[in-house]
């Protein structure tokens, strides 16, 4: 136990340091963005391509830092007994605006009388956001995403998020969750790493089923108590 405690102390220190560095990078970034905008206004049009590249690369650094902060932020972690259906409803509401823009509809199927689960609600919400966002992003022509929450057995629930997007080739499935693995031009490759880590902390597991051309299902098994 002592060894475990020491290990988690070290992890906390590393996390706090990382969060500190991320904040320190963010401040000069904001200044840079501001001055670039000023410059852009006072320089000839010929350079607009350069400014677009600079701005989009700065935005990219910013999103990497933001996703990283979610993981590293030494926020108050509070495990509570919560209704996972409510957490999922709130997540879907949060992303609905983005989904509607690309004609995606998210459909929630909740089994009756699901038990409350012992979890960190903000972190679970972050996982659902990350996985649902990915699902929306692979359905640029629109369609339906099914979200199902069921009881798996006496001690576990299973949350399934099923899209009808591009699918993932079998040899790429094991790369999911590796830091910076992304196939998107503007991706960070951090969303799934953060999600897998949170599920691991909840003593849960993530399973991925996918078929190229027809879609992908993320199945998250979570213990009701741990
Ligand atoms: P990002 O979304 O920034 O690329 P993620 O960690 O969220 O980073 O996802 C990593 C990669 O996993 C994505 O770039 C994509 O290739 C793949 N992926 C994740 N979810 C899906 C999905 N629902 N359908 C197809 N590919 C996916
Ligand atoms: Mg993502």
TrEMBL record:
<protein>
    <recommendedName>
        <fullName>histidine kinase</fullName>
    </recommendedName>
</protein>
